[in-house]
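Can't paste images in this forum, so I'm doing it all in text. The chain is below; anyone willing to post the predicted structure tokens underneath?
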Amino acid sequence: MVRRMRGSPVTVVVSDRRGRARKLLWPVAVATLVFTVSYPANDYLTASKPSDIGLGMFSVYAGIAIVTTGIIFGLVLPWAMRRENSGGIALGLSIIGTLMAPGFFTGWPPAFAAGGALLGWAGTDVAKGRRLSKAAFVVGVLGVIFNVTSYVVVFV
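Text version of the structure:
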């Protein structure tokens, strides 16, 4: 967004990255949920014997993924995006999602990593907490990559 101040020859460029991040909130949440639920769905649909994973365990994993994604993207991120400084929250989410990436099958690390990356990206142009937000974005993207890599290692 470009704003021109009255009587001033100077043009001020204002980035509305938080607004764009709010628009990306639900698409990223849905992509994260589909990715997270695809692991137990793959296990359930390709089980060679009934003891591998049944409908009950699939439901548990899917439930954990739905609740985690709902809390992160439905409560935590909208609340944090209204704050002036959310870099610390973003970094915390990103670190948890990245460190726990090998346990992606539990249903919650992908939501933490993706949520931290999105919240970090939203805060990279604010005056306060910019460095934390940039770090959160980088760590969160690495966390998403680690989650995807863990998934590929299991199924390839």
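The CA atoms of residues 34 and 65 lie 9 Å apart. Strands lie at 2-4, 11-13.
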